[in-house]
Design goal:
This protein is of the alpha+beta class. Helices cover 17% and strands 43% of the residues.
Length: 317
């Protein structure tokens, strides 16, 4: 309530001041709210570290697609399972025809014939030059029997080239050192996998040709001795051999595989073909180391004479 004796102009000034107070208060409220809004913007994205010394979000991988609420971060090293040298498979049926480029493999084999008793050996080294090209060197260690010892004089240089993942071409040159004999072996190794457990291999060592004196055998020292005797007696020696065989492999567990081979071989000096049959087992302690065994005969018609046990170990680096 204003005093009654206050002049009219003064009353108007006081009334204007009263009306301006709410407007000034609102303006002051807006001015003070603005800094608070800016503070909210600064705090909305917090890039401070979580105690690891790195900014939060710096470990995200933008190249990993995120689906829904999937984790975009790259996988940790301890979460990645190592598959060994060049990712070589543990399971036998998953292994390629050729070794991967840069991988080496050494195989030591021992064959034990039952009757007549004889023990032979084979040493093989293979190297994957590239994914497509593989080179190997085989050496027949000779054979020991109850009557004598046949010195290992047979070597073979072999090349294999991958055409498709299931198909390769094979060329080998076996040489017997004394007396000198040279041959040529051609093959088309093929590998087919069925379902998750079965694989078939065909086409290896398909054609053997005598180039000089006789076709040496890297695995069978007794056969080389027989051919040397044929040379001395001027007896017919095969000019070529043709071999067709099928090897089936069943993956029993990831580390153990069972296999069986059935084949037929004939040459130009025999009136009838010979049938071969083997069954075996392969156990892999890792994708770097294999142990294996097989039994069977290279000539079912002379089963007792050709029945043998084979043991081998294989190492890859």
């Amino acid at each position: 309530m204003l005093p009654a004796n206050m002049s009219k102009p003064l009353k108007l000034v006081l009334f204007a001041l009263v009306l301006s107070l709410p407007t000034a208060a609102l303006a002051q409220s807006d001015d003070t709210a603005a800094p608070a809004e800016e503070t909210a913007d600064d705090d909305e994205f917090d890039f401070s570290d979580d105690g690891s010394g790195e900014l939060l979000g710096s470990d995200e991988n933008p190249d990993v697609p995120a689906y829904g609420f999937a984790d975009r971060s790259a996988p940790k090293e301890d979460a990645i399972k190592s598959t060994g040298p060049s990712g070589y498979p543990l399971r036998a049926i998953d292994r390629p025809i050729n070794l991967p480029g840069g991988m080496s493999e050494v195989t030591l084999t021992s064959d034990v014939n039952v009757d007549p008793f004889a023990v032979g050996g084979l040493l093989r080294g293979a190297y994957g030059i590239t994914k497509e090209a593989q080179l190997s060197l085989n050496y027949g260690l000779g054979a020991f029997s109850d009557s004598n010892f046949s010195t290992g004089k047979a070597v073979a240089l072999e090349g294999q080239y991958l055409i498709k993942n299931f198909l390769a071409v094979q060329i080998a040159v076996p040489v017997y050192l004394d007396p000198l004999a040279v041959g040529l072996v051609l093959g088309v190794p093929m590998r087919f996998q069925f379902f998750d457990k079965l694989r078939l291999d065909i086409g290896r060592d398909f054609l053997g040709i005598k180039l000089h004196e006789f076709l040496p055998s890297i695995e069978n020292a007794r056969q080389n001795d027989r051919f040397i005797g044929n040379l001395a007696n001027n007896t017919i020696i095969p000019q070529y051999t043709i071999k067709t065989s099928v090897i089936g492999t069943y993956q029993h567990t990831d580390a153990t595989a069972l296999n069986a081979e059935l084949g037929v071989q004939f040459d130009d000096s025999e009136s009838a073909a010979t049938t071969l049959m083997h069954v075996g087992v392969l156990h892999s302690t890792s994708n770097k180391f294999d142990l294996g065994a097989r039994i069977g005969a290279v000539d079912m018609a002379s089963f007792t004479d050709s029945f043998a046990l084979r043991l081998f170990l294989r190492v890859r680096i």
